[in-house]
Every structure is written in C-alpha cells, then in structure tokens.
Write a structure and sequence with these properties.
The structure is a homodimer of 411-residue chains.
Chain A (H helix, E strand, L loop, with lengths): L9 H10 L8 E5 L12 E2 L9 E2 L3 E4 L13 E8 L14 E5 L11 E4 L3 E5 L2 E4 L9 E2 L10 E3 L7 H9 L4 E5 L3 E7 L3 E2 L10 E2 L2 H11 L3 E8 L3 H13 L3 E5 L4 H13 L3 E6 L3 E2 L5 E5 L2 E6 L3 H19 L10 E6 L3 E2 L5 E11 L2 E6 L7 H5 L3 E5 L5 E2 L4 E6 L1
Parallel strand pairs in A: 5-6, 13-16, 13-17, 14-15, 17-21, 19-24, 22-25
Antiparallel strand pairs in A: 1-12, 2-11, 3-10, 4-6, 4-7, 5-9, 8-9, 18-20, 20-21, 22-28, 23-27, 24-25, 24-26, 26-28
Helix pairs in contact in A: 1-6, 3-6, 4-5
C-alpha cells in the first residue's frame, strides 16, 4: 500500500481540501423565516428601520417630564396631575404640560412631551386625577429608545451565520418575513461491497445489511445537507464508475463508502481518480481509525472515499465532510462539536505522528464524570451505538493515561 | 403582586411540574428508519439475530486452522496449500483440510473448517497454490464472531433514547427498516398584547412586530416538538379565554407568551386558571430574568404563561418547556445544553436565593476563551441575537467575579 506512506495529519488534510473548494457556490433559496432554523444566511442583512420605532415604556407607571420629579422623596413627594391613559398598541390622543403625566404600560408609548417613566411602585394615588411621586427619575429612565434594540442600517446578522431560534425572532422583529439562505448541499451517498444488501432483505450467509448509508445520510442531515442514498454497488469497477459519475453529476458532493477489503478500497480510489480533474488530493490520513481515506475534488466538487468500517466512516465524516458542508453554505466558521470533561478510566495507547480517536461511554461515579473507552473493533457499528462521544489522542502524544482529565467530543 | 411572594427555585418548580405529568402519553408513530434522526424510541428494542450472522474476516489474508501456523516464524515458516478464493458476499464452495487455506477478504466468510485468518502481510507467496506463513495466529484471530457486534435477544437501544446517526445505522444493521417512535408533541403558541402585530405588517406608532412566536416556534422545533403559531390575541380576557381553550383542545402543550404589562400578565394567569383542573401550579419562579412565569396543568396537559420579554421567554422555555417536551416523548433524561468554560470579563451582580442567567458573547483573546456579558435589557431581542450562550449565577451566590472561570451554556 505505497499510497499510504505519505499521509497528512487531519488538520493539514482539511486545509488541502479547503484550498481546492470555492466556498458559497451553491446559490440561494428564498425561505419563509419560520422555516429557516439551522439554515445559513446567504448575505449580510441590515435593518430597514429602528427597533423599537418609538420610545417605548419598559415599566408600568406614568410617563412625564423627568425634571418634574426632581428632588422627589417619600417625605417630600412631587404632585402630578394625571391626564389620561395611553394603552399599549395605541398612539397617545393627548399631550402633557409641565406637572402632568399619562398612565403608561410596559410596551406602550409615552406622552409626546414625556421623557421618562416613573414606576407605579414609586407613586401613591391621591385621587383619579392626581398622584404623588416619591422617587425622582432621570431623563430616559424606564424608556427603550428608538433603535435601542437595533437601529436603521445596523447589521442584523452576517452572511454565513447559522440561524438559531432567537435569530428568527430578531429577523421577524425587523420585518424580514422571508430570508435568503444558502441552498442546502445535495450529497450523494454510494455504498459499495459485494457482501452488502439492503436492510429490507434477509442476509444469506456471507451477506450483511447496509449500515453506512444510513449513518452517513443522517450525518448529512444533521450537518445541514440533503442526503440521497444512491444504493449499493458491488465491487465492480465498471458499475462503480457509472454510479459515481452519475452521482457526481446530480449532486454537490459525492460520498462513497468504500468496501472493506484492500482491493475494494483501491477500486474506490481508482474510480474517484478517473472521475475528472484534479482528482485525488490525498489517499491516506494520519488518523486512526480512518487512515485509508480518499479525498478528491472533481470539477470543483468534493468527492470522499470513506473507509468501510462504521467507526472510521463516522470519524472521517465529522473531521472532513461536516466542515466541508458548512463551507459550501458560506459558513467560514463551522460548528465544533460540544465537549465535556471527564476522567479517563483506562490507558489509551497511541503512536506519535498519528491522531487517534477512541469512542467512550460517559458514566458518573462518586459525583465525578468518567470516560470509559468502548474498546470494540472499528468494524462494529455497536461500538458507536454504545458510545457517547470520542476522546482524541493528539498527534504529538504517545497515549493518554488512566486518571487524566480528557475532553470528550460528544456526537 | 402578592402571587410573586412565594416563588420556587427553578429546580423545585421543574419537579413540581414533573409530578403532575404522565410521561410518554403521546402514543407512537411507525416511521422509516432513515427519517428517525432525533426521534425518541417508543420502546426497548431487541435484536432478532446475530450481527454478523457468520464468522467474518476482519483482515485480507487466508482463512485456515490456527494450529497449522503454530510456531511459524520468518526463519521457520509454515507451508500451506491454497485451495481457492472466497469472495466477499459469497458462501465458500469448498472446505479446507489440515495444512490448507482459503484466500480471505475483509468482510467475507472463512472456509467452514477454518478458525482464524492470517493477514496477507504475514505470508509469502510461493506459487499459485502455495504460501508460507511467517507469523502464527491464535484461534479466532482476525475474525469477527457471530453476534460479536450485537447478539440475538440483546437490547439494541432502550425506549426513550433519542436516535443519533449511528443508531440509525445500528438499527438497519439488524433489519429494523421501520421504527416505532414517540409521536412528536404538538405545541400551540399564542402571542398576546394589543401592541403586537404580524411580521408581514408595518407597525404604526405604538405597535411592534411579533418576536416571541417565531423564537418559541423554533425552540419547539429544536426540542423535537411540532409548533403551531396560533396567532396574536389582544389583551382581552374573553378573546384570550376562547383562543386558549381552543388551543389546548387541539394540542398537547399550550404556551402563551404573555403581554408585558402587569395587567396583561395577570390576565394571562387568570385565563390559564380558568381553563380547568388542577390549573396553575405556580406563578413566579426564583429566577432572573423570568420571574413572572406561570406553570399550569389542565386535564393532564401542561400550559405555560411565559414572560413577554424575549430574553425571559427563551430562558424559561429552556428551563421548563424543553425538558417537558422530552418527558412527553418518554425520555427520562433530557439533553442538557452543551457548555464551554470561559473566563468572565466583568462582574455579574446577583442576589442569593435567586438563579440569574446572563447572556454572554464568547471571544478569544491571548488564546483564552472569554465570556463578555451582553448587558442589554431583557426586553430586547437583540440581546439574545448578540449572545452565544448564558452564564448561570447559582441560587446560593451573590454574584460572579471578573476573572472567574465560568461555564457558558450554549444555545
């Protein structure tokens, strides 16, 4: 396997891929804002107006001139005439003169000449038309100024931002009822292997049901892409060639889950190399599991040959395909997976010059969170099912020790 | 506001709610496995068969009797006759006698009498029909035994488990092409306030566009529920009564985003109390922002009166509604939000006996992650838009200090 001799560490491999990709090439969709959760904003968005558009009371009480309350205390209150009520949602139908006030409601408007709101808790009612103020207010107190939330011309959110629930609220607040978001990348997934059958079928001796297509499709969905399972192709160069060429033509990204034998893996690499230019960027990453990874670019579209082992496939997907899908959507700063700290329960041996990832299960004992390695083989899907996340052994380390505090990357 | 005098801390408030809720009451949906990402498994699932169903080669090489390699070294190799090839996906058409082997491929079957696989790297080819073995193998070496991934009768995944990408792969691997998952909770969302208008409309003076419905709907979606925005209802007791009763009848959970003035908030509490038994469980939580929260149960269905301020509404949603939606799906251990550690950039004052949450923005300076409080008012939606997460000041603390390491709960 001479192609595996000069392998790049994951970080450099990702940079090499990045240097061959034009980001934000997918075009855009115009989508109603309430359907945009998790989508990437296509362009910088600016506010067309001030929010709020009027001085808004932030407390229940009375709007008035602040200077009319100057020096007011419980012992020496200010007497104020109440001219009426300004209900929320309504324009004031009257104004106030010095020494006068209007009843004010949180979210409502002030009287036109008022410049502050005194909280109801700092007043005493004398009769229907008059109150005492027992604490002075400053100009602007208990008032949200026009544009204080966001002002006209200010950036609402930058292009490439992944929209969170509160962002949708912020967008509707400034009247953006539809949003231009990056089109979701379409990802074709081909599973290979003469032994692989559809999950609906019953395996004969020697056959196994497809695992990787379904895991990979769900990973694509979780990463903001649209997966298409293009089916299972046997270890046949011509068939795989045709399927790969068709898959690439109709998708933005092609992912081939390689067969697990060396000859099947090499066939995947050959097929990818034949798809077009520039072709295979690297064949092999300094990574375990996941070493026999193929990363290619064909006519500007990324193509991945993922190892057939489920554990390897998922680790390689998260390291390379997930950030790629974010780049294609114009996001320059992909999400990193959440991590938690835990005490390692066993030694993890590794080799310097290689990045190792080990699935772990999290448990809590004596109120301390612990990471228990799941030492299943990387060709077992249940190694992943039984794990809560991964522990990384960095490139320059020979392993990790029992009792060390480690960061667990959650799925 | 006498109803706010006896307020529970968030943890006890959540326990009180929990004690009034029957979990897993929603019934189930039968869904194709590839559409089940993020859904909750309805019941414990067990494997109907062994995975793999046959002894499976985990390396390319030769299947043989391990004892035929006993003592083999480079200096004293074992000579073995190669009887043929067993391609992946195929049953062996022949068997081997002592001193014989079959060519083996990763993922393929062994010869019927073979009990180990010797890696091709540990062999030397003599001619078409014979090889030398230069390293001994033990029984079972380089073989995945039947049921080693998962065995017949073993639990695949427990009921209530939230399905991750690899779980879908694990389920298809054992032939589960459709899955019974908990039906998603239907959550009705009512926005109230005379000043609130639809985002499509242009606000007149005194009016603001609806923010909370859209934020809350996206939070419901993110939490695995199905949101319905039931519209904006003015501060009118009768209209709100009718809308709430109708919303409750056709949904599993009702969320009312209360008006922001005290009278509007009290109206929401009154409306909820009138919906049915047992009614309001608590009115007020020892929480800032978010104190004027109403939590109720009506005929077994939870009803929330959330504060009108966007920041309060989101914090209260995450503390109470999000775990509730998980319980209703039969999940006893709801996801906790991911956290990162950061150095606090400013003092955060608080008061003992109250849990405070402060939105913060994360920055990195001198390679240290820092949490910068976003000191916007809690009635500004852009306080949330500009923040990356929340810092919690625990119940028993009077505040947090600049320079302290804090945990930031990411959105």
């Amino acid at each position: 396997m001479p192609e595996l001799f000069n392998v790049l560490p994951p970080k450099q491999a990702l940079e090499l891929l990045r240097s061959h990709i034009d980001v934000q090439t997918l075009g855009t969709d115009l989508v109603p804002t309430q359907l945009c959760l998790g989508r990437f904003l296509a362009h910088d968005l600016f506010s067309d107006g001030d929010l709020p558009s009027f001085p808004r009371c932030s407390m229940d009480g009375y709007s008035l001139r602040a200077k009319d309350t100057f020096g007011a205390t419980e012992g020496m209150p200010a007497y104020i005439e109440v001219m009426g009520d300004i209900p929320t949602g309504a324009e004031p139908g009257f104004d106030i003169a010095p020494g006068q006030a209007a009843r004010a409601h949180t979210g409502g408007m002030l009287a036109p000449s008022a410049d502050a709101v005194v909280m109801v808790e700092h007043t005493q009612t004398i009769d229907d038309r008059s109150i005492e103020i027992i604490r002075a207010v400053g100009v602007g107190e208990n008032v949200i100024q026009p544009g204080e939330d966001i002002s006209v011309g200010q950036m609402v959110l930058p292009g490439g931002h992944r929209l969170r629930p509160q962002d949708l609220g912020g967008l509707t607040a400034v009247g953006k009822a539809t949003i231009e978001v990056a089109r979701k990348p379409r990802v074709g997934i081909i599973s290979t292997g003469d032994e692989v059958i559809s999950p609906q079928d019953s395996p004969s001796p020697g056959q196994v049901r497809d695992v990787n297509s379904f895991t990979l499709a769900a990973l694509v969905e979780k990463s903001g892409g649209v997966p298409s399972m293009l089916g299972i192709v046997g270890d046949n160069l011509k068939l795989l060639n045709t399927a790969a060429a068709q898959g690439l033509a109709s998708h933005d990204v092609l992912v081939i889950s390689a067969g697990s034998s060396v000859s099947a893996r090499d066939m995947t690499a050959d097929v990818i190399q034949d798809l077009g230019e520039p072709g295979v960027l690297l064949h092999g990453v300094a990574l375990r599991p996941g070493k026999p990874t193929v990363i290619a670019v064909v006519d500007g579209k990324p193509v991945f040959g993922l190892p057939g082992n489920p554990v390897s496939a998922m680790i390689v997907f998260n390291l390379f395909v997930q950030p790629l899908l974010a780049w294609l959507s114009g996001c320059s700063d992909p999400l990193t997976p959440p991590t938690v700290r835990a005490i390692l329960e066993r030694d993890i041996p590794s080799a310097p010059g290689r990045e190792d990832y080990l699935p772990v299960r999290l448990t809590t004992r004596q109120e301390i969170r612990r990471a228990e390695p799941v030492f299943g083989k990387s060709n077992l899907i249940y190694t992943l099912v039984r794990a809560d996340g991964l522990v990384q052994v960095p490139l320059d380390k020979g392993g990790l020790y029992q009792g060390e505090e480690v960061e667990v990357h959650l799925w």
